[in-house]
Design goal:
Layout: H1 6-17, H2 20-38, E1 47-56, E2 61-68, H3 77-84, H4 88-91, H5 95-105, E3 116-120, E4 126-130, E5 136-138, E6 141-143, H6 156-175, H7 178-184
Antiparallel strand pairs: 1-2, 3-4, 5-6
Length: about 180
């Protein structure tokens, strides 16, 4: 999370940059995505152009990475979507077994949470995102879900607190939009 105190905020950013756990999680996701892209992209074109870069948002800091590749001849945006969905940041690794474990452990279906939203253009371009930190408004009620990345040496209490921080940010967003809250009542 972010902090209102600029000194504490900078310290939190530095802690994230130097966090072995968060860096390991980011690198694991990069490896998964490189592997997925390698299924549909020309071998020599899959490259990591940014690795574990700090990005700043109003309520959180994130480590982000960028992986690029050029599709193989005959492959389309749909092939790319099939090869990369669901994203490694959602599944973890190994991907197939992680999805099986998620299915076994989670008591309810995720609905749109961790799904994908985007568009496919007429020229074959594809622009999508993973649906997190998103409200689903249904029958006058707002629903949202939060989660976190779990790795071998994750601290369960820290992961739990991270999910509460994510939920808190969403609740604050609702409180800043009184017309939405009124419409829901």
């Amino acid at each position: 999370p972010r902090d209102r105190d600029p000194v504490k905020d900078r310290r939190l950013a530095q802690e994230l940059i130097h966090s072995a756990k968060d860096r390991a999680e980011n690198i694991m996701i990069v490896d998964l995505e490189r592997n997925d892209l390698g299924r549909v992209c020309r071998y020599d074109t899959v490259k990591v152009t940014e690795l574990a870069i700090l990005e700043t948002f109003p309520t959180v800091f994130h480590l982000t990475s960028t992986i690029v590749g050029r599709l193989c001849q005959g492959k389309t945006a749909i092939d790319l979507l099939k090869a990369t969905f669901p994203g490694g940041s959602i599944t973890g690794a190994p991907k197939v077994r992680a999805m099986e474990i998620i299915d076994e452990l989670e008591p309810t279906k995720r609905s749109v949470y961790t799904g994908s939203l985007g568009y496919l253009s007429f020229n074959g371009g594809l622009d999508i995102n993973i649906v997190i930190r998103t409200f689903l408004i249904k029958e006058g009620k707002a629903y949202f879900q939060v989660g976190g990345g779990i790795i071998y040496d994750s601290d369960s209490q820290a992961e739990y607190m991270e999910t509460l921080d994510k939920a808190k940010a969403l609740i604050q967003a609702l409180q800043l939009a009184p017309e939405v809250v009124v419409a829901l009542e």
